[in-house]
Design brief:
Strands 1, 5, 7, 8, 10 and 11 form a six-stranded mixed β-sheet that branches. The N terminus is likely disordered. Strand 2 and strand 3 form a beta hairpin. This protein has three domains: about 70 residues; about 120 residues, Cupredoxins -  blue copper proteins (Immunoglobulin-like, Sandwich), CATH 2.60.40; about 100 residues, Cytochrome Bc1 Complex, Chain D, domain 2 (Orthogonal Bundle), CATH 1.10.760. Helices cover about 35% and strands about 20% of the residues. The protein has eight helices and 13 strands. It is an alpha+beta fold. The protein binds dinuclear copper ion (CUA). The site of dinuclear copper ion has 9 residues, from loops.
Length: about 325
């Protein structure tokens, strides 16, 4: 610990703290440990003192055992209550900080599957079990699972997020140290769960830019369809003939997708929802769950036809469509 280029040795009690939230989490953890330790020691010491003083045969004064001590009783109820409320407020505030995504965060898509992490950067560059990120820049991970529940965990960042099939979850961090850090799955997800390991490589911004623009790793690229996610999404969109209902000239008059992303959608009933990644994804795999106001529930689910990565691609395309104005 202490030098600029940190890397995780084979065994450590606690990984070096390497994200903007890590020191706050550590402070909270140490404070709780100290608080619990102090109380536990106090109780243990009292037990020992009483055991010695009131042991059988010892001449202690037992004539006037206290029957009432209201101040003491109120005190030991109120004091812990105040302490616990204080701890709650502190922890909730720290948690809120760890969940509020800065608007300029660099979005990276993560697909977890048995048993690997697949990561995709904005320009379509992919990697497996490795995540390259720039230092001192907020990074937003958008996580999806292809199969079981996984959990994305980077101990050095003090951050963990479940990756759940059928929905998107997200996690953001700002890495504060250049170096390599362990990344692992922390939710039992099958026989190879313990091998679902990887590393986060935090680089200086120029190094990251160079890495991002370098040709893809052939071992990864070989298995992957070419192009940026949104281009693959467009190809899928064409192949599935989505435009036959969602297109401008369609007689079905399904909701238009241009300009949809990020806007508010009025739903049947009195609800509305922001058309974010999660809503778009849900509308592909479970379109009947939230129906746009005035629409018939005609669309079939595509859950069986698309895997998690294809859905990511489609959503990437819809996101791109969303930034175009209505024609
Ligand atoms: Cu994936 Cu455990």
């Amino acid at each position: 610990m202490g030098d600029d280029a940190a890397s995780s040795p084979a065994f450590t009690l606690l990984d070096a703290s390497a994200s903007s939230i890590a020191s706050r989490v550590d402070l909270l953890f140490v404070a709780l440990l100290a608080l619990c330790g102090t109380v536990a020691l106090g109780i243990a010491a009292t037990i020992v003192v009483f055991c010695v003083r009131y042991r059988a045969g010892h001449r202690a004064d037992r004539r006037h055992p206290p029957t009432q001590a209201r101040a003491l009783e109120v005190g030991w109820a109120v004091a812990p209550l105040l302490v616990f409320i204080g701890v709650f407020v502190w922890a909730a505030w720290t948690y809120a900080q760890s969940r509020r995504v800065p608007p300029d965060a660099l979005a990276i898509h993560v697909v977890a599957k048995q048993w690997m992490w697949k990561l995709e950067h904005a320009n379509g560059k992919q990697e497996i079990d490795e995540l390259h990120v720039p230092v001192d820049r907020p990074v937003l991970l958008i996580l999806a699972s292809q199969d079981a529940i996984h959990s994305f965990f980077v101990p050095a960042f003090r951050l963990k997020q479940d990756v759940v099939p059928g929905r998107y979850t997200q996690l953001w961090f700002t890495a504060t140290r250049v170096g390599e850090f362990r990344m692992m799955c922390s939710e039992f997800c099958g026989s190879q769960h313990s091998a679902m390991l990887g590393r986060v490589i935090v680089m200086r911004q120029p190094d990251y830019s160079r890495w991002l623009d370098a040709p893809p790793n052939p071992a990864v690229a070989r298995a992957e369809p070419a192009g940026a996610p949104r281009d693959r999404g467009r190809a899928l969109f064409d192949r599935l003939a989505c435009a036959s209902c969602h297109g401008a000239g369609s007689s079905v008059r399904a909701p238009r997708l241009e300009g949809l992303y990020g806007g508010r959608v009025e739903l049947e009933g009195s609800d509305s929802v922001v058309a974010d990644d999660a809503y778009l994804r849900e509308s592909i795999v479970a379109p009947g769950r939230r129906i746009v106001r005035g629409q018939a529930a005609l669309m079939p689910s595509y859950a069986d036809q698309l895997d998690a990565e294809q859905i990511e691609d489609l959503v990437a395309y819809l996101r791109a469509l969303g930034s175009e104005a209505h024609p």
